[in-house]
Every structure is written in structure tokens, then in C-alpha cells.
Amino acid sequence: MIEAETVTAVMRALADPTRRAVFEHIVNAHEVTVVELTRASTVTQGAISQHLKSLKQAGLVSERPEGRNVYYRAQPEALKPLVDWMSHYGVFWTERFADLRTLLKEIDP
Question: Which CATH class is domain 4-107?
């Protein structure tokens, strides 16, 4: 059974386009600081911090303090509940495409 709350949390976290961009940046950078994320973005450091908080609450990023810096790293395994939820509906589409294939063969043998 797919945990609805977890799927909802991940969907909410990734619903915002800026937050998605921050997450993608972290994924591509391996580890990154707030300063680096702010430099690569068009939003303020405060906004980046808020986006990171949402991503962290959804389990999509983790943080590692080192001296005065905090490094953020993506936790892609947190996407698994969303992938599981989507694959549940993949069966629906597979069946529909099979039905469409059959219908098209009947119309134009």
C-alpha cells in the first residue's frame, strides 16, 4: 500500500517550479550550500532557505553542517513513494493502450 501522506508531501514539495529547480540543482551538484544555490537562482537567500525547508520536510534533501556552511544533498530515494504511486496508474494506461491497439486493428485490418 502506498502511503498517501508521503506521496502528498513529495508532490507538494515539488509542485513549486522554483523548488523543483532548487531540487534539480542539488541533484546535479551532488552537494551544495545555500550561498551557491542563491547565486544560481533569481530568488533571495531567505526564499532559498524556505524552499530547502520544504524539501527537507518532504525527505527530498538532507543537510550536513561543516563549520559555518551547511551542505545540502539530494535524497532521491524519497521519490520512491511517488514513483510507486505513478506506476500503480501505469497499469491503467497499459490496458488502455492495448484496448486502443485492438480497436485500431478492428477499424483498419
Answer: mainly alpha
